[in-house]
Amino acid sequence: MGWSMVLWKVAKYTAIALGLLVVASIVASVLWTLLMLLWGVLKVGALLLAVAAITYVIVKGALWLGSGGDSENPEFASNDADPLDQLRDQYVNGDLSESEFERRLEHELDDGSFDEIDRELERA
Fold first, then answer.
1. Maximal CA-CA distance, the chain
2. Euclidean distance between the first and final Cα of the chain, in Å?
3. What b/e readout covers 56-94, taking b as 16+ CB neighbours within 10 angstroms?
4. What share of the chain is helix, strand, coil (3-state, %, to 5)?
5. Which of 4, 20, 24, 91 is deepest in the core (most CB within 10 A)?
6. What is the pLDDT of residues 57-112, one digit of tens each?
7. Quick one: DSSP state of residue 79?
8. In 3-state terms, what secondary structure has residue 97?
9. How far is residue 119's CA from residue 124's CA, in Å, rounded to a whole number?
10. Residue 108 near residue 84 (C-beta atoms within 8 A)
11. 78 in the Ramachandran plot: left (φ > 0), alpha (ψ -120 to 50) or beta?
């Protein structure tokens, strides 16, 4: 085998190696670009989620403060509301008949836990 044949093989394998390096570089660049695109989308999604959560908290807080933080707004009603007020609300909403309302009202008043002064102090 002559020197020309050896040089020809060296040139051929060098060209193949360089071609493979170019292809590997292109594949790596494409993969890196896709990865960075995905990372950007995830960052934007996280930012939008954070903004939505902060907006939700601000709106709910404003609604709660706008309602005075009291039980008149059913969304923010507390479970420790006055039983007489609960009875009155049920009667007004039509959930109780007049006779059922009067029976429950007498039961609440008869148990001794409420008298007129205590009720007025709780409302104040």
1. 120
2. 111
3. eeeeeeeeeeeeeeebeeeeeeeeeeeebeebebebeee
4. 80, 0, 20
5. 91
6. 999 988 888 876 654 555 545 555 677 888 888 889 888 888 888 888 888 777 65
7. T
8. coil
9. 9
10. yes
11. beta
